[in-house]
Amino acid sequence: MSKRQKLSTGTATTPEAVANADSALALHARGKEHAEKLLAFINYAWTPFHAVEEASRRLIAAGFTPISEREPWYAVKPSVKPGGRYFFTRNMSTIVAFAVGAKFQPGNGFYMVGAHTDSPCLKLKPVTASNKSGYNMINVETYGGGLWYTWYDRDLGLAGRVLVREEGAPAGGAGLKQRLVKMDRPLLRIPMLAIHLQRDIHTAGFKPNLQSNFAPMLATAVKTALLDTPSSPSASPSSASAAAAAAAAGGNKHSPLLLSLLAAELGVTPEAIVDFELHVVDTQPGVLGGAHGEFVFAGRLDNLAMSYVALQSLIDSCPDEAALAEETGVRAIALFDHEEVGSESAQGAGGPVMRDTITRVAAAMSGGQEGAVERTLRSSFLVSADMAHALHPNYADKHDPDHQPRMHGGLVLKHNNNQRYATNSVSASLFREVARRHGLPCQEFSVRNDMPCGSTIGPILSSNLGCRTVDVGISQLSMHSIREQCGTDDVALAYDHFLAFFKEFSALDASLDVDSLPPAAIQGTIADTPCCHVHH
């Protein structure tokens, strides 16, 4: 029996069943293709810095122009103009890209997809050096709400940003340069305690103290003393010199071994390293999995999956200036840092980055016209894109019986009347209409009444900008684990949905303005009904 026949239902193969089977098979193939591209992005983007670097590289390759927040966007000759495509970064961990429609007029809206570049992880503390029981350890701080027990017994590497002093710069002067580093080999490990030493783990549960029981192991002190100290008999003159330099550079803050590893990776001397922001990261790359290759197994799906889909759909919606010829709005994406810890930072969604962007573009395009910024904000629409909770086959009771998103079911619209999500009937209907016009499926999610609800950048940006917002996401399992899981079809479906949103939303949005509708016609007569009470 062919795959097409297996997908068809009933004994008779109807033309509709064949068409549905062909469509499902085509989606399966496209889903795997899109998922492979997603994995290429995730496997490079170990940290928000690397995610922004990779996004910048792709935008430049697609013809977007990098601009700086420190430079004027409108002077004698405007640098932001209709038909143009631009991007900028903030802190190298947040990136905003936008394409201005050729028919943009002052007061027209931004049509945005917002996501985030950060994920729960371990970050190195300011003083990293730690020695315990004959081991060289690394001091780390938990970032976000991770499932930390999943980090035990994993092969861990280091990645992030390092500030180095350029050669020839005086010690007290300038000459600092940012370098990204990615040590993608097993350097660290957090070993689990054997069951023989915690016999009650299955009854009491695994409850490690994250200060005392969660430090990654870098090396044994005896091997470090033998191989990486200036006085070691096995050390070559060059390695002895490097070890001495690393010891001097680290002082009491960092182990000479760590600085030597960083310096070798960057091709600099240990003394050149001024400071760093490093993340501990799982070295196992993301892969396709499942019997049919229908799953994505990877770290950081929350939320690099939505970041990738937003980025790629924006790029593909406007491959050149001609693609913006009929666009009346501004197509934009914003990939923020610090969502996992509340978004309250200069580069987080709670900061001014998106309002600054809209304000500057609206002002530049209007020549200072009164109310242009405010009208643009009110005309704008945000898709807050963050991963959603798929129904878990082993914990189905954790979902509301009537709100159970499934893998391969399309984007999930998230609802919460207590404003943990910013979706309302208008924003949901407009987003669903985009899907309906292209035959794309959608799903609905609302949390159980007896469980707390998470949140996203949606309510934060909606309240800061005053714009309409819908919260959506690809459904996934194992959220905030070191290895997460989603379906391949949903990557393709999310891409299709966002691509259609960018291309068509400005025209669709013009068809509905709930604040300008005429009052409903009141028919009939309202008569007071006697209450029948005896009043004294």
UniProtKB/TrEMBL annotation:
Catalytic activity reads:
Release of an N-terminal aspartate or glutamate from a peptide, with a preference for aspartate
Which InterPro entries does the record associate with it?
Peptidase_M18 (IPR001948), Peptidase_M18_dom2 (IPR023358)
Record EC number: 3.4.11.21
Q: Which GO terms describe its molecular function?
A: aminopeptidase activity; metallopeptidase activity; zinc ion binding
Q: Which GO terms describe its biological process?
A: proteolysis
This protein is called what?
Answer: aspartyl aminopeptidase
This chain's source organism reads Gonium pectorale
On the tree of life, the source organism's domain of life is Eukaryota
